[in-house]
Amino acid sequence: xxxxxxxxxxxxxxxxxxxxxxxxxxxxxxxxxxxxxxxxxxxxxxxxxxxxxxxxxxxxxxxxxxxxxxxxxxxxxxxxxxxxxxxxxxxxxxxxxxxxxxxxxxxxxxxxxxxxxxxxxxxxxxxxxxxxxxxxxxx
Length: 139
Description:
Blueprint: H1 9-23, H2 37-44, H3 52-64, H4 72-83, H5 106-127
Helix pairs in contact: 1-3, 4-5
């Protein structure tokens, strides 16, 4: 056994709802639905198979909420994936079977940008700084 959670089910449910809210970024078209866990794995690793400790960090953040912030490690990996999208990403099919021709299309950026927002908000929360909203802050 690698991981044990000793918390109430309503609290875990609340953490998962907050997890999905914090991964959301403003999207100008129809609601794309919640971010899937496999999408987060591709946002930090080229083949969608990150090291086990990264997968566990994502799971713990989802289940335990703000008690397990992601911080700089996952942030660096998500930013690195944006800088180096990888070979063949533009021709790869996502798991729904839809082909997306541009590796930096808005649809593809939604998930890593949500993960980046989550990491930055975790860091800001620890420092007592105002959190980043899901949409454009016009002020």
